[in-house]
Amino acid sequence: MRTQLIPLIGAAIAVVLQIIVAPLITFFSVVPGFIVSYVIVLGILRGGNSMYWYAFVLGMIADLLSQTPLGLTPFLLLIAVFVLSRVFEVLDQTTPAMPLIACVVTLLVFEVLFAVGLLIAGYEGGISLIVSRALPATLINAIICVIYYFLMRRLPFERESSSAWTISQTQRFR
After folding, report:
1. How many Å is the Cα radius of gyration of the chain?
2. DSSP per residue over 99-133, as a string?
3. Max Cα separation, the chain?
4. Of the CATH numbers 1.10.1410, 1.10.1760, 1.20.5, 1.10.10, which one belongs to the domain with range 2-155?
5. Smallest Cα–Cα separation from 137: which of 162, 164, 171, 104?
6. Predicted confidence (pLDDT) per residue in 59-107, tens digit
7. How far is residue 143 CA from its own chain's centroid?
8. Domain range annotation of the chain
9. CA 174 to chain centre
10. pLDDT, tens digit, for every residue of 60-72?
């Protein structure tokens, strides 16, 4: 019960931060994405099938709070969480280097695809939209991801594992 309640409380805090704090902070006219950073860090730390619900619901909330096409953020978050959950089934999480590199790379890809999605939806700006939105948003969200990661690493998250990667304890090697 506790491991299911902690991510839910964290999601509520991320939404409150997005509503109250994010409009007060701008970095090169880009508002930080507390919700996007939370979902990506939660996808790295927790993984598993429950993350798809968090990615969809929190992505819809993020779209409703911003002036972006409805469904773009959940779609990209679902892809990001799927890739992160598969990657971290085999990658090492004992040191913070690999998760933080994955956060930054995922955020950069997310922001570039988000800018491309905005261009497809009819927003003006061309290639300058990608540069002027994706790079500052990646930088500020990466800082938020680092803070989230070091705070959430101390919380008891149980990572769901796939049975394909586990070895049965009843079988012995001879």
Report:
1. 17
2. HHHHHHHHHHHHHHHHHHHHHHTT-S-THHHIIII
3. 66
4. 1.10.1760
5. 104
6. 999 999 998 899 999 999 999 999 998 888 888 778 899 999 999 999 9
7. 13
8. 2-155
9. 43
10. 999 999 988 999 9
